[in-house]
Design a protein that fits this description.
It is a single chain. This protein is an alpha+beta fold. A 9-stranded mixed sheet has the order 2-6-7-10-1-11-12-13-14. A 3-stranded antiparallel sheet has the order 5-4-15, with no helix packed on it. The two termini are about 50 Å apart. Helix 7 crosses helix 9 and helix 8 packs antiparallel against helix 9. It contains 16 helices and 16 strands. The protein is elongated and about 100 Å long. About 40% of the residues are buried. Bound molecules: adenosine-5'-diphosphate, magnesium ion and zinc ion. Magnesium ion binds next to loops. Magnesium ion (MG) binds next to loops.
Length: about 500
């Protein structure tokens, strides 16, 4: 772990047991918003372009439930073994804030769509299972942006594009006991969300927002201590560091006899510390009441069965299959399964007849590196359906000795960057290894014609001249000539001119 306590005291874990519960908000991957027909994908939209009377809360507008959003919550619930409510209802969660056009958020409180699920995941200390208390559906708020205007005044701008996006909130029981467990839970949940197609869950884009509730209790006791909610973590690493930091901060406070207060703290990734955002009184009074503009929601069993039948292979099952049927290490299996695109590529490589270890090495190495470097940008070159067959061809060329390992990586980089086919890229970059004896002999003749002095030196017995001439032949082939064939061809040509044949060894 990167974060270490500054004092020389024994680690907090020895004196206190951390207790952690996690709330995760996920933007669902629907076509339209939660209660209106505005487009859900707002990535390229200018501020306030994706709005309508419903998501701006103009008087007289009425919400309509997005069926697909409900299905995605049900699918997620089924994937974590949750019970799906047969009837749920919508409630108004009332509070005032400039990012909330209605002055309330439509949410679910008493009757969440899914409840009592569980999720298991691997940690360095073995498998851990967390109970998931609930998964419910609600709408996102608008986005506030703080700026300075032309006259230097500080202003707050509101972008309502995000208002009304479908949001699923998933809440665990306080079952987690370390920063690593918190991170691994979030990673595993993301893998499930991606597999189910519920969300792209890109943390850096705010599509998956993790909040960790952290408290400590004396080791060996069962009660719950005062909890602090930590937010604003936008990577898995940040989740782990923030929880680790918060555990240490609370341990130091308790050691010093300072009582903790229930509060919300933000994570400052650059400083590596949490800071107070607001004190959280126990009873935020949201005055929940039933949403009068929407009827209760009934989920009939036939619908649930259809959604269950459509569930894909889930991450845990897929990892197990990769380990047992394909001989991957548990680590490689986890890395590949964490990204559906990587998984799809791996499967395409297997279908193309590649050996699983080779397929895994390319997938976890070059492919995921290129994908991470692209920063979530969707490029045709990274699309597994297209890249898979090209990569099969590329790996074949390398295995057949037609491309060096370095050239193969260069071709891969070009494929991932711009698309194209392996054949075209190999040709464009001039990388195909020259193993044609006629072509090499022609290069040798050209070099000997140009380097008369070196040839004369060699004929006079200066053996270093052979290495020099061979270097020129390789250079003339732009490094692509098969070195053994080039050496043979040069030795043969020199012999024909009546000079020394030596230099062919080594
Ligand atoms: P709220 O909605 O006000 O944040 P909840 O009771 O729904 O409160 O709890 C939110 C999260 O906090 C849940 O994941 C729960 O498991 C966790 N939690 C509750 N009490 C504690 C505690 N004492 N320590 C750590 N986590 C807690
Ligand atoms: Mg909370
Ligand atoms: Zn709208």
């Amino acid at each position: 772990m990167a974060t270490a306590p500054s004092s020389a005291s024994p680690p907090a874990a020895a004196r206190y047991e951390p207790v952690i519960g996690i709330e995760i908000h996920v933007e669902l991957k629907t076509a339209s918003k939660m209660f209106c027909s505005c487009a859900r994908d707002i990535r390229d939209a200018p501020p306030n372009a994706r709005t309508c009377p419903v998501c701006l809360a103009l008087p007289g507008s009425l919400p309509v439930i997005n069926r697909r959003a409900v299905e995605l919550v049900i699918a997620t619930g089924l994937a974590i073994g949750a019970r799906i409510a047969l009837v749920t209802r919508w409630e108004r969660k009332n509070y005032f804030y400039p990012d909330l056009p209605k002055g309330y958020q439509i949410s679910q409180y008493a009757l969440p769509l899914a409840a009592h699920g569980r999720l298991a995941f691997e940690t360095s200390r073995g498998e851990v299972t967390v109970r998931v208390a609930r998964a419910h559906l609600e709408e996102d708020t608008a986005r506030l942006q703080h700026a300075t205007d032309a006259t230097g005044r500080r202003v707050s701008l509101v972008d309502f594009d995000r208002a009304g996006l479908p949001l699923m909130e998933i809440v665990t029981e306080p079952d987690l006991h370390s920063a690593e467990e918190a991170r691994r839970y979030a990673e595993e949940l993301r893998a499930v969300l991606l597999a189910v197609g519920a969300s792209d869950a890109a943390m850096e884009r705010g599509e998956m927002r993790v909040e960790a509730n952290v408290s400590l209790r004396p080791a060996g006791t069962e009660g719950l201590g005062t909890r602090v909610e930590v937010k604003n973590m936008n990577s898995f690493r940040a989740v782990e560091r923030a929880v680790e930091h918060e555990i240490e901060r609370q341990a130091r406070a308790l050691d010093a006899g300072q009582p903790l207060v229930q509060e919300t703290r933000g994570w400052d990734d650059a400083r590596g510390a949490t800071y107070r955002m607001r004190l959280k009184e126990d009873s935020d009074d949201y005055r929940y009441f039933a949403e009068p503009d929407l009827p209760p929601l009934h989920t009939d069993p036939a619908w649930l069965e259809r959604i269950a039948a459509d569930l894909p292979e889930l991450p845990a099952a897929r990892r197990a299959r990769y380990v047992t049927s394909h001989g991957l290490s548990p680590y490689d299996a986890r890395v590949i399964v964490a990204e559906p695109a990587a998984s799809a590529l791996f499967e395409t490589l297997l279908a193309g007849g590649l050996e699983p270890r080779t397929a895994a090495t390319w997938t976890t190495g070059e492919y995921l590196r290129a994908r991470n470097a692209a920063g979530g940008e969707e490029r045709p070159g990274l699309d597994p359906g297209w890249l898979g067959p090209q990569l099969v061809e590329l790996i074949r060329l390398q295995a057949a000795g037609r491309l060096t390992a370095a050239s193969a990586k260069e071709v891969f980089a070009a494929l991932a960057e711009d698309g194209g086919t392996t054949t075209a890229v190999v040709e464009r970059l001039g990388l195909s290894r020259i193993a044609d004896e006629g072509a090499i002999a022609a290069l040798v003749e050209r070099v000997l014609a140009e380097q008369r002095q070196a040839l004369a030196d060699l004929q006079a017995g200066k053996q270093q001249a052979f290495g020099f001439l061979l270097g020129r032949v390789m250079q003339a082939s732009r490094g692509q000539a098969d070195p053994a064939l080039a050496r043979q061809a040069l030795a043969a040509a020199v012999a024909r001119t009546g000079g020394s044949e030596r230099g062919g060894e080594g």
